[in-house]
């Protein structure tokens, strides 16, 4: 793929704008995705941070749940941050009873594992496959990965908890690189998208 890849940001809820900006600085063409027709037109997708219970509800309401699941199953590259990570987990803990996920990574993710809003924090995170020193991790009511299956690769940990995972074309982080102005994680994802084309 010589042309810049077209990467959508799921725009049902959450910090969509920040991801659009980060993707653009990582040399992708970025656009919001709300409807199945828009999803069909992108090479890859970012699922932003926000509130996964709301995102799940809106995905059902907008008729996006099955189209999203289908694209992920078909191998579309996808990157989820925080609530987005929850959406990409095959299984979640401390979710709402009727909460749906797309799945994609053989992992169990615990919602709000790092605590509530007032327990948000930043930390330097060593990220496998990203050069130039640790990335700044912004954790806001962040989940962690309680366990990962054999096919998922752990890319980062914080205080013994898994906070970044990749399985094939699916990438997920507990934290929010889109809020830091450091676009290296987005560039890593854009490289994944180019490699899968
Ligand atoms: N705790 C939120 C949820 O369950 C995620 C928070 C975030 O995305 N910053 O979806």
Tell me the domain tally: 1
Total beta strand runs: 12
Which compounds are bound in this model? glutamine
Radius of gyration: 15 Å
* Strand percentage: 25-35%
Which CATH class is shown? Alpha Beta
Give the helix proportion (percent range): 25-40%
CATH topology: Rossmann fold
CATH superfamily: Class I glutamine amidotransferase (GATase) domain
Look at the helices and sheets and give the structural class: alpha/beta
Order of helices and strands: EHEHEHHEHEEEEEEEEH
At CATH level 2, the architecture is: 3-Layer(aba) Sandwich
Show unreliable segments: none
Largest sheet: 7 strands, mixed
Order of strands, main sheet, comes to: 2-1-3-4-12-11-10
The number of helices is 6
EC number: 4.3.3.6, 3.5.1.2
Keywords: Glutamine amidotransferase, Hydrolase, Lyase, Pyridoxal phosphate
Active site: 82, 176, 178
Protein name: Pyridoxal 5'-phosphate synthase subunit PdxT
Task: Please describe what this structure looks like.
With 197 residues, the protein is an alpha/beta fold. The protein has one domain: Rossmann fold (3-Layer(aba) Sandwich), CATH 3.40.50. The protein has six helices and twelve strands. The chain has helices at 16-25, 36-39, 52-61, 65-73, 83-87, 184-196, and strands spanning 6-10, 29-33, 44-47, 78-81, 89-93, 105-110, 121-125, 135-139, 144-148, 153-158, 161-167, 170-173. The strands form three sheets. The protein has a seven-stranded mixed beta sheet. Strand 10 and strand 11 (161-167) form a beta hairpin. The radius of gyration is 15 Å and the shape is globular. It starts with 5 loop residues before the first strand and ends with a helix. Glutamine is lined by residues 49-52, 82-83, 86, 111-112, 140-141. L-glutamine binds at residues 50-52, 111, 140-141. In the presence of PdxS, forms a dodecamer of heterodimers. Only shows activity in the heterodimer. Pathway: Cofactor biosynthesis; pyridoxal 5'-phosphate biosynthesis.
């Amino acid at each position: 793929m010589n042309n810049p890849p077209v990467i959508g940001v799921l725009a049902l809820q959450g910090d969509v704008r920040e991801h659009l900006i980060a993707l653009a600085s990582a040399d992708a063409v970025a656009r919001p995705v709300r409807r199945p027709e828009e999803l069909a037109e992108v090479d890859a997708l970012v699922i932003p941070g926000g509130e996964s219970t709301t995102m799940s509800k809106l995905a059902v309401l907008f008729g996006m749940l099955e189209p999203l699941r289908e694209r992920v199953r078909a191998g579309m590259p996808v990157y989820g941050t925080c609530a987005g990570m929850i959406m990409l987990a095959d299984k979640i803990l401390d979710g709402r009873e009727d909460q749906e996920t797309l799945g994609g990574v053989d992992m169990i993710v615990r919602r709000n594992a790092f605590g509530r809003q007032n327990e948000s924090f930043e930390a330097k995170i060593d990220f496998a496959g990203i050069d130039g020193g640790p990335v700044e991790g912004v954790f806001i009511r962040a989940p962690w990965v309680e366990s990962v299956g054999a096919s998922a690769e752990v890319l980062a940990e914080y205080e013994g908890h898994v906070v970044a995972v990749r399985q094939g074309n699916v990438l997920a982080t507990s934290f929010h690189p889109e809020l830091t102005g450091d676009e290296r994680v987005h560039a890593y994802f854009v490289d994944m998208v180019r490699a899968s084309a």
